Amino acid sequence: MYYYINSFYLYSFLGYIYENLLHLIIKGKFLKNVLYEPIKPIYGIGVIIIIIIERFIFNRIKVSKRLKIFLVFITTIVVLTALEGISGVILEKLVHKVLWNYSDMKFNLGKYICLEVSFVWGIMSIVFLYVLKSFFDKVLKKIPVLFSNIMLIITITDILLSLIIRS
Known about the structure:
The chain is mostly helical and 167 residues long. It contains 5 helices and no strands.
């Protein structure tokens, strides 16, 4: 269980860094975060979903490595795009803001989904699973249980405060 909790925090934090660097490069400023913590939970949730799919589905099927990589690519595009679309709608209802908007992208499917970004999710998933995951798994094993529990309490408090104060 702590593996998934720690994965959530690590990848949510890395997602926060990724989005801020991307926004800084494109728009010249940092993003305003919905939470007080420097995390983007959608990244943590997305990576956990990828790990579960890989562990319980793709590690059990007997196909060539190329076909497995292709299937992982297509599956993660579909699953992460659905996560992004559903999250966009839910977050708009909860915080009364549009947190991302792909309407100006060429291949958008409304505000929350666009094929260009979906393709990036597929590529990032392959890079994560086949290049980075083994390194990050070693890091995750070193995180003390007490730290994980404290972070969980902080995040629950942060979510409640963010919803109450910023709504």
